[in-house]
User: Which sequence fits this backbone?
């Protein structure tokens, strides 16, 4: 564990807490893409198949349970909670993400560390996470003004993988034969997808204005 | 354990 990875995990945890706060405090999920939440639930379920088979540390197990539990709880809330579900932007959240799921799974069948059930699903989860934010970014552009908590949620979600890139650089420099091409390349693609969001987020922060993404 | 080393990250 290094400071970059810990910062990444904490930033990821903060993004989850901000989203839970937004939904719980405002009893609304307006501006949140259910499709991105469902993709993230798939990411965590596919990545943490080793949850019960391999114990790495209490921290690792607890964080996996938190990410799986929170993503499923948010999907449930947005689909079935009688108050929250009314504020879901169903007509704006129309990204056909099964194409993404199919492409990522196909890529995982071709590109993986080892051809085993667990490794193929692990690679699938890495590729899927790289593109999971797309429905959310499309929804933000369509829904125009973005409320503060939603903007902060997306910001922290994007920032966490940037910390992981620093973690991989650090580990590459300090650990012999450390190579994680699948994670690194996917992490770079994932963070790059946030580039324009980070730009407009910075502009809104500098001008102390509402976050506006160009349509 | 059976896992390859990269599963130590979340």
Assistant:
């Amino acid at each position: 564990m290094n400071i970059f990875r810990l910062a990444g995990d904490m930033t990821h945890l903060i993004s989850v807490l901000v989203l839970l706060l937004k939904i719980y405090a405002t009893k609304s999920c307006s501006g949140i893409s259910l499709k991105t939440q469902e993709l993230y639930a798939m990411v965590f379920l596919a990545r943490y198949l080793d949850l019960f088979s391999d114990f790495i540390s209490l921290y690792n197990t607890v964080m996996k349970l938190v990410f799986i539990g929170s993503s499923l709880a948010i999907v449930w809330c947005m689909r079935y909670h009688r108050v929250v579900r009314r504020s879901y932007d169903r007509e704006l959240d129309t990204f056909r993400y099964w194409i993404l799921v199919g492409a990522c799974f196909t890529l995982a069948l071709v590109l993986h560390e080892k051809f085993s059930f667990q490794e193929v699903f692990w690679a699938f989860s890495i590729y899927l996470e790289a593109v999971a934010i797309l429905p959310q970014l499309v929804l933000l552009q369509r829904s125009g003004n973005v409320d503060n908590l939603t903007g902060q949620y997306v910001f922290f979600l994007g920032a966490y993988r940037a910390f992981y890139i620093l973690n991989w650089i650090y580990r590459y420099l300090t650990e012999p034969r450390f190579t994680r091409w699948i994670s690194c390349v996917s992490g770079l693609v994932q963070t790059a997808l946030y580039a324009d969001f980070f730009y407009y987020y910075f502009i809104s922060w500098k001008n102390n204005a509402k976050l506006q993404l160009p349509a | 354990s059976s896992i390859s080393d990269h599963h130590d990250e979340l």
Q: What stands out?
A: The mean pLDDT of chain B is 64. Chain B touches chain A through nine residues (CB under 8 Å).
